[in-house]
Amino acid sequence: LGGITSDKVGADSTVVASCDTDGVTTSYATAWDATDKRFEITSVTVGGVSDTCDGQTLSVNLTDSSGAQIGSGTLSIPTSVATSFAVTMSTAPSAKLTEGVNVLIA
């Protein structure tokens, strides 16, 4: 069996090129959910995205302490001079339980 050969996904022991080589930053927006009686992460802002990523899909996954996904969201990166994008969570996870963030641009 060979390794992964796609130029969009990295796995196995294969390194693939990225449209953003210097990394990104993340920050969270939270809101009180009166129904669940907790603060939830409603969106994640991803900053420092290279203009070479325009037109690609930005995906954010939030994880708990075990690494299980508890929230996610995606958006298509517009062709613009902007380098920071707010990704709305499709399901807003508990802010207290959120331990990790994974960002994928593909």
What percent of residues are in strands? 35-45%
Number of strands: 6
The backbone outline, from C-alpha atoms, is elongated
Describe the strand arrangement of the main beta sheet, using strand numbers. 1-2-5
Largest sheet: 3 strands, antiparallel
Poorly predicted segments: 1-15
End-to-end distance: 24 Å
The SSE order reads: EEEEEE
Summing up helix and strand content along with how strands pair, one would put the structural category as mainly beta
Assembly context of the chains: single chain
Mean pLDDT: 87
Rg result: 15 Å
Q: Report the total helices.
A: 0
Helix content: under 10%
Topology:
Elements (H helix, E strand, L loop, with lengths): L24 E9 L4 E10 L9 E7 L5 E8 L8 E4 L11 E6 L1
Antiparallel strand pairs: 1-2, 2-5, 3-4, 3-6
What does this structure look like?
This protein is mainly beta and 106 residues long. It has strands at 25-33, 38-47, 57-63, 69-76, 85-88, 100-105. The protein has a three-stranded antiparallel β-sheet, with no helix packed on it. A three-stranded antiparallel β-sheet has the order 4-3-6, with no helix packed on it.
